[in-house]
Amino acid sequence: MLADVIIHGIQEKKGIDIILMDLRNIHNAMCDYFIVCHGSSKTQVEAIADSVAMEVKKAIGENPFHKE
């Protein structure tokens, strides 16, 4: 599951308080899952975002559509 790949990327850079929200049962939801975490510094947050993008690229061969 792609959400597992994303969580692995977050864990690789020690992301804090990872939350996976399952939105599949919500009518008109824009996505199936929403994943949130935080880091202790701007540098760590940037490293987490880069790690997630790299893990997704390795898993499916595409860059993430959007990250924030």
Could you give the topology of this structure?
Elements: H1 2-12, E1 16-22, E2 33-38, H2 42-60
Antiparallel strand pairs: 1-2
What does this structure look like?
- With 68 residues, the protein is an alpha+beta fold.
- 44% of the residues lie in helices and 19% in strands.
- It contains two helices and two strands.
- The protein has helices at 2-12, 42-60, and strands at residues 16-22, 33-38.
- Strands 1-2 form a two-stranded antiparallel ribbon.
- The longest helix has 19 residues, at 42-60.
- 13% of the residues are buried.
- The model has no long low-confidence stretch (mean pLDDT 93).
Name the average pLDDT: 93
Strand content: 15-25%
Question: Main sheet, how many strands, which sense, barrel?
Answer: 2 strands, antiparallel
Please report the distance between the alpha carbons of the first and last residues.
20 Å
Number of strands: 2
Helix content: 40-55%
Note the overall shape.
globular
Q: Give me the Rg, rounded.
A: 12 Å
Total number of helices = 2
